Amino acid sequence: MYLVTKRIDFCYGHRLLDYDGICKHPHGHNAVVEVEVRTDRLDKRNMVADFSDIKRVVKGWIDRELDHKMILRHDDPLVEPLKRLGEPMYLLESNPTVERIAKLIYDKARELGVDIVGVKVWETPTSFASYSS
Questions:
Q1: Can you give the pTM of this predicted structure?
Q2: Model confidence over 1-18: pLDDT tens digits?
Q3: Domains of the chain by range and CATH?
């Protein structure tokens, strides 16, 4: 089995509702995403996937949709004031935990045609969540 991993960095802010810890307050992260593509056969170029293709598609989506945005639950009381201020946001149906963000990136990458098998999102240098098929 062959496996390649593309690393993507981005910054985001969030907070968790219905949570009794410091993450209930708005705060930010410098995230590191690891996108994994796996196959048992190399393509005609002798590659699992071209790193530049993964970067173009997955990093392109992350840069447009998540980078330097507040990722919030759709019913967060901050949504309306931030909208009025013209602040960039990405809204989710559920709390924007790092686990939820990992699944979001996984789902979007597959939707965009990247045959990924796993996504790992490092929220801090010592803490990550992953989602895989």
A1: 0.95
A2: 999 999 999 999 999 999
A3: 2-132 (3.30.479.10)
